[in-house]
Amino acid sequence: MSIVHIIPPSPRLFPHTPRAHVDRTRNRRRAMGVTDSGGQAFDRAQELKQFEESKLGVKGLLDSGLASLPPLFIHPPETLSDLRPARPRPCPGSIPTIDLSGCCDSARRPSVVGEVSRAARELGFLQVVNHGVPAEVLDRTVAAVKAFHEQPAEAKARIYRRQTDTGVSFFSNVDLFLSKAASWRDTLQVRLGPKLADVEEIPEVCRNEVLEWNQQVERLGSILLGLLSEGLGLSPGKLQELTCLDARMMVGHYYPYCPQPDLTVGLTSHADPGVITVLLQDQVGGLQVKHDDEWVDVTPVPGALVVNIGDILQIMSNDEYKSVDHRVLANPSQEPRVSIAVFCNPSNRENDFGPFPELVSSDKPAAFRQFTFNEYMRRFFTKELDGKSLINYFRA
């Protein structure tokens, strides 16, 4: 077994002495590359390089004894000013919880199709219960991903990389080198389909659980795509015929305690690029959805899975379904937050995508142009995770 050498990061990444507790204004100025009062400028490129080469991730920084945020994690004022609490109680914009039991029965199916379709059109987000995934599978999956992230840094550093050749990687912030500031989370990424990642590369601590989770999501994804397809007035198999379930990517996010949660975020506001996302979240909370210019909490429901519409499905539905902005707040709790998302995408990346012809008429012309999924993803990975600018690029 090869020995992994951890590169010692700059002491400035570990401001755990009292002198490192600077005020918010100074931190924000330094985060934007402004020279501080001592004449010392924040060299963002250098700090990014040191953080990346350390292979520690956010959890590793925290384990070092860090007591305040390194400048590269401090977000600009326009982001921080919007970190208002979500609505404190249920309201008309709350995320619906939909019971899927009996959804394959002819008697109950129209009702479930209506509920799912309504949530997809109005909010772009829903939670589902009685989905057929055993509770013990949910618990084991969360525990296994948590166990991976809580290994010693040396164990995780072996797969710290941004290349996807093996289909397995550990990293912090997919847009680390493109974003205005880094977010407070680490990620384990595993390719589930159409070609499963090299199984031996999937960390042993979570390997069996990831493989089982893949089977469950593939089964549930088929049900969800059928319901969403019918909700558009199309045949139940329409989306699957277009390979929309075949390319699946899992990300296991870990949001450790953040010492200054008002200066950063766990995941910046963004919309998902694919067809649908199936998310398993623990009970810590922090996920928020934007609805009518307000942030709404996606409050964890025991045993529920979160489902949201991606940009590709909004495009194919000709704007009937909504892919909406969502974010995760930095975690102020000593208990880490764990979430496991599976992005379902088309595997035929050279096919043309655009609004379904059945949903285009003289009264409602095509809102988007045709494009290939490869073109879409190339643009996605050359921008930071930030709002709806990508989908607007493809508008007709």
From TrEMBL:
> SUPFAM superfamilies given for it?
Clavaminate synthase-like (SSF51197)
Keyword tags: Iron, Metal-binding, Oxidoreductase
Q: Where is the Fe2OG dioxygenase domain?
A: 246-346
The keyword Metal-binding is assigned to this record: yes
One Pfam family matching this protein: 2OG-FeII_Oxy
Organism domain of life: Eukaryota
Assigned protein family: Belongs to the iron/ascorbate-dependent oxidoreductase family.
Record's protein name: Fe2OG dioxygenase domain-containing protein
